[in-house]
Design brief:
Elements: H1 10-21, H2 30-52, H3 61-91, H4 106-117, H5 126-154, H6 162-192, H7 197-204, H8 216-241
Helix pairs in contact: 2-3, 3-4, 3-5, 5-6, 6-7, 6-8
Length: 251
């Protein structure tokens, strides 16, 4: 939806993709997406949690935003090359056949970008990626923690409440989607189009003020379950393996 020139909605784009290339085409870039989750996303969470340990307790909202921004930016160093390949694999079928990349998987993409375009190309659009990564961590991790604290007070629940984890993660996803979408669209165009940032911005604005938020519906539809599953899994691991108390008798 971000790349094509025609103004198609999510449902029409899905139907065309399935009719033209089959249902499996909806999973283009899966290897890059999984690699990104295992590396970049995991690192974002780790750096954010470690950063909070160095803040005064309780950690206020500004501290959370600051730590999340730094964690996202640092994790972006690892995630940008994979994100480049992921973006190209996802938009590959929408391009004319003579300019398609046709990467077989994420490692093939990383190798061919390095071989054909130079390793610096792996960081194409790096500034936008750093900003997007910082906003993503702020919109997900910092917003989740803040929402969790608020909901624990409102509903009189403890930190191990699955209900609080669920509504906090949904809240974070709904905040994060609109925050990152303009940067995400511009970054995707920059990674695909070598013409430069100004050209990418002009192309993004082809739909007017809707351009920066093009694809917001599938973005939120993807982000809500993704964020919910991520944080529910994270909290369950932390509840069962991350907290323990040492009683006076055992000392």
């Amino acid at each position: 939806m971000v790349i094509i020139k025609k103004d198609r909605g999510m449902a029409d784009s899905l139907k065309r993709a399935i009719r033209t290339n089959g249902f499996i085409s909806l999973y283009d870039g899966l290897s890059a997406q999984l690699t990104r989750q295992l590396t970049y996303t995991s690192l974002r969470f780790h750096l954010y949690e470690k950063g909070k340990e160095h803040m005064d307790d309780p950690v206020d909202l500004l501290d959370k935003v600051f730590v999340a921004g730094l964690a996202g930016c640092a994790a972006g160093v690892v995630g940008i090359p994979v994100e480049l390949v992921n973006t190209r694999m996802q938009v590959n079928r929408a391009l004319p056949k003579d300019i398609r990349w046709n990467y077989r998987h994420v490692f093939d993409g990383l190798y061919r970008v390095t071989r054909d375009e130079g390793w610096t190309k792996l960081y194409s659009g790096c500034l936008l990626s750093f900003i997007r990564s910082s906003f993503m961590t702020i919109g997900q991790n910092a917003a989740y923690d803040q929402a969790k604290e608020i909901y624990m007070v409102w509903f009189n629940q403890k930190h191990d409440s699955t209900f609080v984890h669920l509504i906090s993660s949904v809240t974070a996803a709904c905040i994060c989607g609109p925050i990152i979408k303009p940067i995400e669209n511009l970054r995707a165009l920059r990674m695909v189009d070598p013409s430069g940032l100004i050209h990418a911005f002009g192309y993004m604005m082809r739909f007017g003020l809707r351009g920066p938020f093009r694809g917001i519906v599938p973005c939120v539809v993807r982000m809500v379950p993704n964020t919910a599953i991520t944080f529910l899994s994270f909290e369950q691991l932390r509840v069962h393996f991350g907290y323990y108390e040492i009683s006076d008798k055992k000392r």
